[in-house]
Automatic annotation (TrEMBL), chain A:
<keyword id="KW-0809">Transit peptide</keyword>
<dbReference type="GO" id="GO:0000287">
    <property type="term" value="F:magnesium ion binding"/>
</dbReference>
<keyword id="KW-0816">Tricarboxylic acid cycle</keyword>
<dbReference type="InterPro" id="IPR024084">
    <property type="entry name" value="IsoPropMal-DH-like_dom"/>
</dbReference>
<dbReference type="InterPro" id="IPR004434">
    <property type="entry name" value="Isocitrate_DH_NAD"/>
</dbReference>
<dbReference type="Pfam" id="PF00180">
    <property type="entry name" value="Iso_dh"/>
</dbReference>
<feature type="domain" description="Isopropylmalate dehydrogenase-like">
    <location>
        <begin position="30"/>
        <end position="354"/>
    </location>
</feature>
<dbReference type="InterPro" id="IPR019818">
    <property type="entry name" value="IsoCit/isopropylmalate_DH_CS"/>
</dbReference>
<dbReference type="GO" id="GO:0006102">
    <property type="term" value="P:isocitrate metabolic process"/>
</dbReference>
From TrEMBL, chain B:
<keyword id="KW-0520">NAD</keyword>
<dbReference type="GO" id="GO:0004449">
    <property type="term" value="F:isocitrate dehydrogenase (NAD+) activity"/>
</dbReference>
<dbReference type="InterPro" id="IPR019818">
    <property type="entry name" value="IsoCit/isopropylmalate_DH_CS"/>
</dbReference>
<keyword id="KW-0496">Mitochondrion</keyword>
<dbReference type="GO" id="GO:0006099">
    <property type="term" value="P:tricarboxylic acid cycle"/>
</dbReference>
<keyword id="KW-0479">Metal-binding</keyword>
<keyword id="KW-0560">Oxidoreductase</keyword>
<comment type="subunit">
    <text>Heterooligomer of subunits alpha (IDH3A), beta (IDH3B), and gamma (IDH3G) in the apparent ratio of 2:1:1. The heterodimer containing one IDH3A and one IDH3B subunit and the heterodimer containing one IDH3A and one IDH3G subunit assemble into a heterotetramer (which contains two subunits of IDH3A, one of IDH3B and one of IDH3G) and further into the heterooctamer.</text>
</comment>
<dbReference type="GO" id="GO:0006102">
    <property type="term" value="P:isocitrate metabolic process"/>
</dbReference>
């Protein structure tokens, strides 16, 4: 760690000693729940239902964020609730991109205010889901607070807009360190940094340099880098070559969506946003699913798997494991597949089947 | 789209830039096939190695520039930019010299070259002069870097209009603008506005807007839903390479660069492949398909169709194909097979 300047040493904390927020009122955790828009509310209800069924010691504090009002009161309430509880489960909040720039994306505000610097998405091929590529197992770690999403834009001359992409040494070191620590914890062998440093020599050059510096502290993990356009080409032809990938914000957006598409679509992959003090869980590709809202056709798998990640974060591993096993069993049943997987199943059928699967394992455990 | 003014039988001169590495061999292959097809094209070979002009400014040789300005149409092989040459990349130099503002890549699945994706048939149109590749970067304080993404009304309008014109001229049904205006409200918002304005002027072409991440997500699941895509520089770079990956990589993808004043340079986008240069192993498909794109641009649809069909048939038959296409024939054998097929078609 001696290669880091003194001023930076204290910024790199080790999260492995983190303890979840203390449970309140008789061993039950309180978790903020932001239903969001589109399919968000119905999926949030299913999570609620499932947790109740499994007697998970979690109570949800529901905070609604209305995307149509201009004031940031709603999102500030949500942020305060997350500060209070430490963890949250959220659906995507719609952003009307026709509104003026003063109206910022609520999701982005949440991420930056709470400094949820790492977006982690684990894309794995699931048995029972038919895809063009098999044996995909990629962990994507995306810087979540700076880069192209800094929302700093101005129009100095009419008709000429400048948008600033900010890359800092501190945040790049932080995310690189997070990626390598995660790789070490999960026993992964290789980390690939995705960049465009041949064109953005200073910005992505800095990011790449920080990754290289951090890599030298993890000799057992091999490190390489790849330019983003080549990365997408490689992903659609041979995704099996990738292990852990770390990258700045925008490339993370592209790569995570490509990988989610490769393993079966937005309905299957959960996502997690981690900061030093808070954690927010959501679906990996952050879609509102407006066109399929309230039709009982949305795939609940991504949101339910996200809730399992939440339970793992709260150290309720037994519950997390039980629910996850049931979900992965049900996802192999082709007759229950929802529209996004090419089937005609309904959301409620999937959730009910998951509950039945949990019930039968419970009965089995009780009888032994 | 200057085709209607040229007589079908007149020989047109095209500037040919063979390039480096495998460039010369694949250029000869293309010339041979064009000869077999009796295409009314006369080639004018030029070298574009950068030279320093008066005042120390790097530029392409004046005879190359004069040739391009005169002929308007060019075909280019892969170019090498020597490291520490002191000048920017060759491609960048060409882009700046001729103001090549639109990069067009039609991605069509090649029957006979199997990839996990079939029935891909889309075109990516990428703004090529500004956006995230403006090259304007500063170190604000030690450890904080800012890179500026520039979006101008003029460039956005130009690319949007081109996209719709292209759709109209090539009988494409819809144009989709790819953006991230939810996050980059002002910049992508401006781009989007210009696309919408262009859409108003071309009501016969359907216009949709889609977020970049949604496009990526849907592209790898079902690429058949896309037709023409128009977008700023960075998204275009990523998406055009993604689409190239869908059909089999840069070795089989054609590309065209449209500039102001009617200049158009068609090129193969793969590298110079120095390891196989001079060994008669190269695959000329990318350059050939770019040349076919060039013929279509010039209005020589008959010859374009003939050469393209010959190329695809040869690949589909798999008897005489180069190593990267799954065979073990030489470049010259592959070229001869296509020439034979072209001659048989007459």
């Amino acid at each position: 760690m001696s290669k880091f300047k003194n001023s930076e040493k204290f910024l790199i904390k080790h999260v492995s000693t983190y303890t979840p927020p203390p449970a309140q009122y008789g061993g039950r955790h309180t978790v903020t729940l932001i239903p969001g828009d589109g399919i968000g509310p119905e999926l949030a209800n299913h999570v609620h239902e499932l947790f109740r069924f499994c007697c998970v010691p979690v109570d949800f504090e529901v905070v609604n964020v209305d995307p149509s009002i201009a004031s940031e009161g709603d999102i500030n309430n949500a942020i305060m609730a997350i500060r209070r509880n430490g963890v949250a489960l959220k659906g995507n909040i719609e952003t009307n991109h026709n509104l003026p720039p003063s109206y910022k994306s609520r999701n982005n505000l949440l991420r930056t205010t709470l400094d949820l610097f790492a977006n982690v998405m684990h894309c794995q091929s699931l048995p029972g889901v038919r895809t063009r590529h098999k044996n995909v197992d990629i962990m994507i770690i995306r810087e979540n607070t700076e880069g192209e999403y800094s929302s700093l834009e101005h129009e100095n001359v009419p008709g000429v807009v400048e948008c600033l992409k900010i890359i800092t040494r501190t945040k790049s070191l932080r995310i690189a360190d997070y990626a390598f620590r995660m790789a070490r914890e999960k026993g992964r062998r290789r980390v690939t940094a995705v960049h465009k440093a041949n064109i953005m020599k200073l910005a992505d050059g800095l990011f790449l340099q920080c990754c290289k510096e951090v890599a030298s502290g993890y000799p057992e993990i091999s490190f390489d880098s790849m330019i983003v356009d080549n990365t997408t080409m490689q992903l659609v032809s041979r995704p099996q070559q990738f292990d852990v990938m770390v990258m700045p914000n925008l490339y993370g957006n592209v790569v995570s969506n490509v990988c989610a598409g490769l393993v079966g679509g937005p309905g299957l992959v959960p996502g997690a946003n981690y900061g030093d003090d808070y954690a927010v869980f959501e679906t990996g590709t952050r879609n509102t699913g407006k066109s399929i809202a309230n039709r009982n056709t949305a795939n609940p798998t991504a949101m339910l798997l996200a809730s399992c990640l939440l339970l793992d974060h709260l150290k309720l591993h037994a519950y997390a494991g039980m629910i996850r096993r049931a979900i992965l069993t049900i996802v192999t049943e082709t007759r229950l597949h929802t529209a996004d997987l090419g089937g005609q199943g309904s959301t409620s059928e999937v959730v009910q089947s998951i509950m039945n699967a949990i019930q039968s394992t419970r009965a089995h455990t009780l009888s032994t | 789209f200057c085709s209607s003014t040229w007589l079908k039988n007149a020989i047109q001169t095209v500037t040919l830039i063979p390039g480096d590495g495998i460039g010369p061999e694949i250029s000869s292959a293309v010339m041979k096939i064009f000869e077999a097809a009796q295409a009314p094209i006369k080639w004018e070979k030029r070298n574009v190695t950068a030279i320093q002009g008066p005042g120390g400014k790097w530029m392409i040789p004046p005879d190359a520039k004069e040739s391009m300005d005169r002929n308007k149409i060019g075909l280019k092989g892969p170019l090498n930019t020597p490291i520490a040459a002191g000048h920017p990349s060759m491609n960048l130099l060409l882009r700046k010299t001729f103001d090549l503002y639109a990069n067009v890549r039609p991605c069509v699945s090649i029957e006979g070259y199997k990839t996990p994706y079939t029935d891909v048939n889309l075109v990516t149109i990428r703004e090529n002069t500004e956006g995230e590749y403006s090259g304007i970067e500063h170190v604000i304080v030690d450890g904080v870097v800012q890179s500026i993404k520039l979006i101008t009304e003029q460039a956005s309008q130009r690319i949007a209009e081109y996209a719709f014109e292209y759709a109209r001229n090539n009988q494409r049904a819809s144009v989709t603008a790819v953006h991230k205006a939810n996050i980059m409200r002002m910049s992508d918002g401006l781009f989007l506005r210009k696309c919408r304005e262009a859409a108003e002027k071309h009501k016969d072409v359907k216009f949709t807007e889609m977020y970049l991440d949604t496009v990526c997500l849907n592209m790898v699941q079902d690429p058949t839903q896309f037709d023409v895509l128009v977008m700023p520089n960075l998204y275009g770079d990523i998406l055009s390479d993604l689409c190239a990956g869908l059909i089999g990589g840069l070795g089989v993808t054609p590309s065209g660069n449209i500039g102001t004043n009617g200049v158009a340079i068609f090129e193969s986008v793969h590298g110079t492949a120095p390891d196989i240069a001079g060994k008669d192993m190269a695959n000329p498909t990318a350059l050939l398909l770019s040349a076919v794109m060039m013929l279509r641009h010039m209005g020589l649809h008959g010859h374009a169709k003939k050469i393209e069909a010959a190329c695809f048939d040869t690949i589909r038959e798999k008897k005489v194909v180069t190593k990267d296409l799954g065979g073990n024939s030489k470049c010259s054998e592959f070229t001869d097979a296509i020439c034979q097929r072209v001659k048989d078609m007459d």
